Amino acid sequence: MNELALLLRVLDESYERKAWQGPNLRGALRGVTARQAAWRPSPGAHNVWELLLHSAYWKYAVWRLLAGQRRGAFAEKGSNWFARPVLRTERAWRADLALLEREHRRLRSAVASLSRGALGKRLPGSKYKTDTLVYGVASHDVYHTGQIQILKRLWRDRKKARA
């Protein structure tokens, strides 16, 4: 397997394909409601919804570097962390799930179009090589998937304790 194929595999497994580490990001979000996504385990802690947008943003940020685009084209104003929910509705939650999906598809397409020679090169605006950025964004998905799984467990345990 060449390096590009391996990077695509890691990107796919971290987001939507079966992987040995357990759930991927998309799988961890499956079945989560807007109410559950908006819940915080403590004041100031991030919730599932914010983790989703944070992940979408970094997929956008890596795509932007790969595509040579300027900053400012993300669907939300700002960068990195976005307070959610603004509106706690299932419709708003589904819209942000769709944003994550679009950003992932756009990133994956950009990675698939890379030449093998481009993988070891540093991109303008980044201190990292291309392959490091792609591997990093996949690892980022796995990291936040773990956090989402913990938040879902805390939510479930909290509900059980109240019953």
User: How much helix is in the residues?
Assistant: 55-70%
The CATH homologous superfamily name equals dinb family like domain
Question: What name is given to the CATH topology?
Answer: Four Helix Bundle (Hemerythrin (Met), subunit A)
Mean pLDDT: 94
Strand count: 0
User: What is the domain total for the residues?
Assistant: 1
Topology (elements, then pairings):
Layout: H1 3-15, H2 25-29, H3 34-38, H4 48-67, H5 90-112, H6 130-162
Helix pairs in contact: 1-5, 1-6, 4-5, 4-6
Mind explaining what this structure looks like?
The structure is a single chain. Helix content is 61%, strand content 0%. The protein has helices at residues 3-15, 25-29, 34-38, 48-67, 90-112, 130-162. By secondary structure, the protein is mainly α. The chain has a single domain (3-162), classed as dinb family like domain (Four Helix Bundle (Hemerythrin (Met), subunit A)). It is globular. The mean pLDDT is 94. Helix 1 runs parallel beside helix 6 (130-162) and helix 4 packs antiparallel against helix 6 (130-162).
